[in-house]
Amino acid sequence: MFARVASERITPGANTARMLFHTWPFLVFLLIVLPVFFALRKTRLWLPWLTVASYFFYGWWNPHYLFLVLYATVLDFCLVALMDHCPREGNRVDVLARLTRLRFDDRVLKAAFLGAALATLGILGLAVAGPKTLRPAMTALSLLVFLMALGALFSSRRIWLLISLVNNLALLLFFKYARFVVENLNGVFAWAHLSSLKLPDPSALMPFGFEYLLPVGISFFTFQSLSYTIDFYFGNVQRERNFLRFATFVCFFPQLMAGPIERARHLLPQFHQFPEIRLQNFTDGASLFLVGLFKKLALANYLAYYVERVYDNPRAFGAPALVLATVAFGWQIFFDFSGYTDMARGVAKLMGFNLILNFNNPYLATGLGEFWSRWHISLSSWFRDYVYIPLGGNRGGTFNTYRNLLLTFFVSGLWHGASWTFVIWGTLHGLGVVITRELERSAFYRTQVPRLAKQLGVFAFVSFAWVFFRAGSLNDALLIVNRVFTAAWHDPQIPALMIELVALVWLYQFLYESRYRYLLQTGLVRVGIAVFMVLYLSLCASGGGAFIYFQF
Amino acid sequence: MAATKTIGIPDTPFVNEVRLNAWHWIVVFAILAIIGLLTPALWKRRERFEPRPDYRIPYGLSKDYWLYERRLQPIAPTNVVVLGDSVVWGEYVRPDGTLSHFLNEQSGQPGKFVNAGVNGLFPLAFEGLLRYYGGPLRHRKVILHCNVLWMSSPKADLSTVKEERFNHAELVPQFYPRIPCYKADLNQRLGAVIERHFTFSEWATHLQIAYFGQKSIPNWTLGDDGRDPPHYPNAYKNPLAQITLKIPTEPAVDPERGPNSPRHKPWSASGEGSTRFEWVELDQSLQWAAFQRTVNLLRSRDNDLFVLVGPFNENMMAAENRPAFRRLRDGIADWLAKNHVACLVPETLSSALYADASHPLTEGYRLLADRLYNAAAFRSWLDKGR
After folding, report:
1. What phi and psi values does residue B143 have, to the nearest 5 degrees?
2. Distance between the two ends of chain A, CA-based, in angstroms?
3. CA-CA-CA-CA torsion for A265, A270, A272, A274, nearest 10 degrees?
4. CA distance linking residue B115 with residue B369, whole number of Å
5. Which chain A residue lies closest to B190 (C-alpha atoms)?
6. Angle between helices B286-300 and B123-133 (to 10 degrees)
7. How many Å lie between the alpha carbon of B211 and the closest alpha carbon of chain A?
8. For residue A446, how many C-alpha atoms fall within 13 Å in the half-sphere facing its CB?
9. Considering chain B, what percentage of its residues have pLDDT values greater than 90?
10. Which end of chain A has fewer CB atoms at under 10 Å, N or C?
């Protein structure tokens, strides 16, 4: 039932060793972690055990990046602690007076100032006179520590927040986007005959000659950690005083790699109480895990083969194959990502924790806005709360609302990957949201257009946008779009079994959201579906590729 | 625990109805247990499998270990099972040109000697095959072939450090003893260990091998015809229609095997070679250690064992290479004698009777069977306990 084969696109750094939910090593890991966790759940030791298990899980992928997640965790924990020592209402600060009168009312801030000031000097010294390989990292660190000294000096919550933002986004920027930025800037320099300004490859900045790899799950744990500091800054969560609890919140292994991106106010309180585990935790957890496993192994991996066949060589295929492969990719990524989330929620549930819902049958949405309230819910709500609303949200008129929407989706596209194809994908969705909002203003659209037509329209638009998400390059994406309208109509040779499986799932979803839902609620149907899924997995599972969203 | 206050935490929402309660799960497990236990057993009744006297598992089904176990089950206690790799199976010959066939001829009893060789196997894998799928082989007379080819170099012995990919990796020891050139990841190793113990999983593999070209059903629907540009002949086919309940057999006319095949010819026109094999030391050989464990395993199952060592194609070797080979061959015979295992080390056949270093041609098998059948040691072993 579990995966035997592995061939897929996967994020760098994940190739050496894997502990995916659908692999045997994870089962063994779980068989060790869960019994100990159950035994310790009424003692103080359950939390340290969970922390150790989570760090082990992450370290299995690449032990070097444990330092990264630990660094991000320690820094945000300390920043919030320091923020807690600063007055909530910021007074106007007389910079000159503050600089000439170095007196501190708060001992912690005084210690932070002294520590940060000394650290700045020390790290700056390393940056100047230390090993060459350390210089870039030390220069960046000295700047950060200098900002910390300023934060302590001015008792400014805003500076602490700024440091958290800079630190988390810098990690993300460096590991995920630096090469993209450098390549594009170098392209511009070459175009402008300024090749002398050519920037070095980011790998040259890695200390000790470490390999420049994208750490798995970096976009998820940085966003999760960042949400805590932002929420604390705005007074939405209380400060977490227990480091282990905070560390577990940041690296809780079920959702560490690909979400759902949890909020402190949802997950941290669950770590404050002894986990309560009932029989329902097992039955619900197993139900979620089975559905996730089926989505991943039976559906996503199967669809992936056809998608790869067509997208790896789009010139060789006619319009029907390109359209069907694009639709297949839409389902592949849904099954892959929502399958991961289901398994994550299932594993968390087994331990007595509830993770938030991340997918809610998105291909039944009747509008693009609704689509984003059903697709990757934890990310879209993150962007809503921390990008869209701070930009002004829907305050300030239609133009500003749409501008904010487009900007938010632009950033969301960029979050998914360092490539123009992702930017275009995000922007297309932004435009789609704007267009459906406008359409929904008209009474005709609201009342006369059948629900099914809206659903199919949204699905068609989302599928079109997936072309840019999936294509290997912008040229490939444009080629595919072009060929969809111009290429000959050859037999797509898509397996009928594939179409039947996807059609069954879609039909199930339609039924689930219809008045015939009761048909699915009988014990016979539930048991029948579960038996079918297990048997299908035993007989027909297609390989064991990594999850697509691990690369984000 | 600093704080144990109860905080209202929302329940885990479901967006489908596959939310099973405890009773549902019990029913699911019960149904799966029934299906898992009954299906392979019922399948054996429905699927036609009637091995004839010279039957050998077709090469395409070599990895169908469930079928191998099934092949061993109906063997009569009076029959003699011939175990080994492609030498026993008969890589260059037709089913009626194998060692077991000529032994049957010698004995005058068709079907007395059963060809239970598997093409592509080697001692490390054979040990696994017999350990996990050779359960029915008890209280029988067994001829075990020892092919010294597997000790002819560190690479053949699988004792090199550089990664090697080989057949039947699922059968070799996954963790201990360590095979240095076997670099499968932990998932593959654990998967191999776990799946050995699930009959249903092996039966599923049987379906894939016997009816779907060694592919899972989804992969079979995606299979191409190997041409350029490729065509996908199975895309619109009904997979269930593939399950004909007839196990594939060897082709009636196999262009790759038998006297009429271009491959069926002596290894060299001159009949003399100068190959220098890098014979490994017996006490350091992984394959030999596996062979020893296989001997012990078969004997622990109360089988009466006879080991046939070689005959390896000595004509192929450079003269200075032969003493090392003979030391190794004699070492094998010594160990077998010390452990009271009946054995025979037949003299090398003439050069023209070999297709390569270890595989005889049809006439080679005929001669070997003749020598074996008429050897006193063999006759005494064969007649013992009759």
Report:
1. -100, 125
2. 27
3. 170
4. 13
5. A24
6. 30
7. 13
8. 6
9. 68
10. N
Last residue of a domain, one of A272, A307, A327: A272
- Interatomic CA distance for residues A257 and B16, integer angstroms: 24
Indicate whether A543 pLDDT > 70: no
Residue ending a domain, among A249, A272, A295, is: A272
Sign of the dihedral defined by the CA atoms of residues A528, A533, A537, A540, in that order: positive
Looking at the structure, tell me whether residues A463 and A519 fall in a common domain.
Answer: yes
pLDDT value at residue A500: 95
* d(CA B212, nearest CA chain A) in Å: 11
pLDDT at B136: 92
Q: Is B131 left (phi over 0), alpha (psi -120 to 50) or beta?
A: alpha
Task: Clarify whether residues A213 and A324 are in a common domain.
Answer: no
- The whole-model pTM stands at 0.88
Cβ B88 vs Cβ B99: under 8 Å: yes
Chain A hits for B35, Cβ within 8 Å = 531, 535
Average pLDDT value for residue range B306-330: 92
A207, part of any domain: yes
Residue pair B110/B53 in contact by the 8 Å Cβ criterion: yes
Alpha-helical regions (H) of chain B: 22-46, 65-72, 86-89, 99-107, 123-133, 186-195, 199-211, 217-222, 286-300, 322-338, 362-374, 376-383
Residues A230, A316, single domain; the answer is no
User: Can A64 be counted among the known catalytic residues?
Assistant: no
Within a domain: residue A474? yes
A99 found inside a domain: no
CB–CB contact A2 B191 (8 Å): yes
Q: Give the domain range for residue A504.
A: 287-551
Residues 480-519 of chain A with CB under 8 A from chain B are 493-498, 508-509, 512, 517
Query: Which residues in B lie closer than 8 A to residue A286 (C-beta atoms)?
Result: 20, 25
Residues A448 and A501 in one domain: yes
Q: Residue B141 forms beta bridges with which residues?
A: B80, B304
Query: Which of the two residues, B91 and A150, has the higher pLDDT score?
Result: B91
Residue with tokens 């459906």: A436
pLDDT at A217: 84
Question: For position A148, what pLDDT does the model report?
Answer: 84
Listed in sequence order, the residues at least 6 apart from A546 whose beta carbon sits closer than 8 Å to its beta carbon are A6, A8, A10, A11, A14, A18, A20
CATH number for region B26-383? 3.40.50.1110
Q: Confidence band (pLDDT; 50, 70, 90) for A331? A: very high
Cβ neighbours, 10 Å, residue A67: 11
Q: Do residue A377 and residue A439 come from a single domain?
A: yes
User: Which sign does the torsion angle of CA A386, A387, A390, A394 carry?
Assistant: negative
Do residues A34 and A44 lie in contact, with contact meaning Cβ atoms separated by under 8 Å?
no
Q: Is residue A28 within 8 angstroms of chain B, CB to CB? A: yes
Residue in B9, B15, B23, B217 to test binding to A, most A beta-carbons within 10 Å? B15
Distance between CA atoms of A99 and B325, rounded to whole angstroms?
Answer: 88
The C-alpha of A176 sits at a distance from chain B's nearest C-alpha, in angstroms, of 27
For residue A437, what are its two tokens? Answer: 């909002």
Q: pLDDT (tens digit, 9 = 90+) per residue, A121-145?
A: 888 888 888 777 777 778 888 888 8
For residues A347 and A437, membership in a common domain is answered with yes
SS (H, E, C) A411-470: HHHHHHCCCHHHHHHHHHHHHHHHHHHHHHHCHHHHHCCCHHHHHHHHHHHHHHHHHHHH
Q: How many CA atoms lie within 13 A of B262 on its CB side?
A: 0
Cα separation, A439 vs A524, in Å, equals 42
A4 — pLDDT class (breaks 50, 70, 90): very low
ipTM: 0.87
Render pLDDT for A515-527 as a digit per residue (tens, 0 to 9).
Answer: 999 999 999 999 9
